[in-house]
Design a protein that fits this description.
heterodimer; A: mainly alpha; ABC transporter involved in vitamin B12 uptake, BtuC; 2 domains; B: alpha/beta; Rossmann fold; 4-stranded antiparallel β-sheet; globular
Amino acid sequence: MTTNPTTPVVPLATDLQDERLIRTEGFKGAIKVGVNRVRGGDLGVLPIIVGLLVIWTIFQALNPFFLSSANLVNLLLESAAVGVIALGIVCVLLVGEIDLSVGSVSGLSAAIVGVSFIKLGWPIGLAVLTALAAGALIGLVYSLVYTKFGVPSFVITLAGLLGFLGVQLFVLGVEGTINLPFDSFLVWFGQQAFVPAWLSYVLAALGVAGFFLSQLTLSRQRVKNGLSGRPMRLVVIQTVVLAVILFFAVWYLNQTRGVGWMFVFFAALVLVMHYAFTRTQWGRSVYAVGGNREAARRAGISVNRIYVSIFVLCSTFAAIGGMLAAGRLAASAQSSGTGDVNLNAIAAAVIGGTSLFGGRGSAFSALLGILVIQSISSGLTLLNLESSFRYMITGLVLLLAVILDAVSRKSRTSHGRA
Amino acid sequence: MSTVSAERTETAAPVLSMRGVSKHFGAVAALTDIALDVHAGEVVALVGDNGAGKSTLVKILAGVHPQDAGTVNFDGKDVTIHTPVDSIQLGIATVFQDLALCDNLTVVDNLFLGRELGPWRLNEVEMEVQSWKLLRQLSAKIPSVRIAVASLSGGQRQTVAIARSLLGSPKLIILDEPTAALGVAQTAEVLNLVERLRENGLAVIMISHNMQDVQAVADRVAVLRLGKNNGTFRMKDVSTDDLIAAITGATDNVVTQRAAQSGAAAAASTAGTAGPDGTAGPDGTTRASEGAAEPGAADGPAGPAGMGGPGGGSMPPGQPDGNADQPGSGAVPEEGNVP
């Protein structure tokens, strides 16, 4: 508002005219809104940021290598595969469903790539496409069973968890493990592909500029149409904070190997899904189905089509994650996608703030959630603690996240927020 | 006002014309052979007791579930409405009793749900501007359109639901008990709103249990009883007592019985006159053209005895008793399912 000298003469914005509305103009008003929102149980990303800071502080105190550039580079690379799977979980959670089979599907996808690329000698592109198609097909089958027979997704995907683990073992055959050559694209992408330093700064600058411009144009457009704009000072401060975080992170990671392309790929997927969820009709329909399925149906949304798209997306993301994991490991094994992959992916989505009850959450929860989980995993590995502790602590964090979800839900209800 | 529009609509072809519409759920016949006409610029009130089939009729028009038999003619064309999308595309907007809003979405999101501007790049600003314009037109009292619907009061939610129905510029608006959850002032506002819809040349079907609301805005009243037409009345010609008689199926009904309990003599005379044919009064005086062929008089008292199962699950328990000593007993062999 300070940048616009004509503000005092302009009549009150259309959306601020109701006298019952507590005036929240300008920068201070925006801060006040934020505080009220947190009090009302609309916590947003706050608990995750706080949690992440606490975890990092503890592990840094216990082992000074934890926050070193080399370890963080590794941490980001490790988080990409399960992060992509968690992005799929965010999709299904948004419509109030669940997919328990993402681990098996990712393992199957790794097996398909390994067998078709190494044993059958297919070109890598064709092998990747086949694995993607298999993932999409699995999602299609889930969604058809779900929409035609009305079986709860919990049960369908539990069957898928077992069934596709079997298919994975069958595809791999007797040997059980297929090593991927180090000069193949997948392994290069998973282990050695790093963004050149200059390009990483360019990407960061593009991100910051994109954020600032989109905020600015949105604000201008609102003011032009007689609505209240965003306070200029707030936009500038947000942009500066984002720039500081991004550039510092990129600079720090560039001290050693830099930013892995695999992580950039994951981040790009998160941004694309964020756009799809928030700025497209499809995304709006997803939230509507998750919030009130019958209302969505009566509003003319083809609910079944939304379910199909969501389940297909989730399984496809699981397939992508499986291939990334295979590249990272340089092998497709019987153990691919087993163990804690499933639960880590689901835990990441929930810890990141996507509600188990449907209709609330964002694509960024996959990114933030997987950072929390990988930080715990990496920190405990550095402390030479057995995996028993890792399971216990991750379980505890998941429990805390779910409790936070339930409590903030109650608080939202009592404060009249959705 | 009602007389003007009622006369105007006599000549024009109806926007909506239903003939012989039936719907059953398992063994329960929720609707049997329903006929209903609605003209442009006309408010038709749809009344009936609980379980009379009002909501089922609305759901057929809204595409929630299709009818089993019969034709629906909309805007001069025979149509089949299988899904809510069909209904919306035809130009039928329905405001459901349970509102059908998404609590987790904001007012703007709910208003434009299913018809967002810019499917691949939502035009939030334009949607918000249009939302404000629409809500101001309806003189709606919504403090902010960027808050979740969960934080709105019942009346505000009703306003949002009605506003949403107007967005697609529909030809027919169906309001399912629009005033049921509202306060005095908000009820008046909704009734004003209904009149404004009529002035704009829209056809309106309003379901209500509230006779005052019906009399305040309706041009015609269509009565459903146990899933069947039980007469259509022009509002100016009919009294509340006649309407209640048509709704309950007899002038000797729970309502009059309660009134009669204060005087035993009055009770005796009521039973005497109502005995032969409960619906004779309204039927003779004001039955509208499309209902004339219906042997509505016969199914009045007979209904409770034979049809108690189908549509009358939630009928007042006193109803069958009230007819037991009347010619209703003559209906027993006809239906054949009462020992």
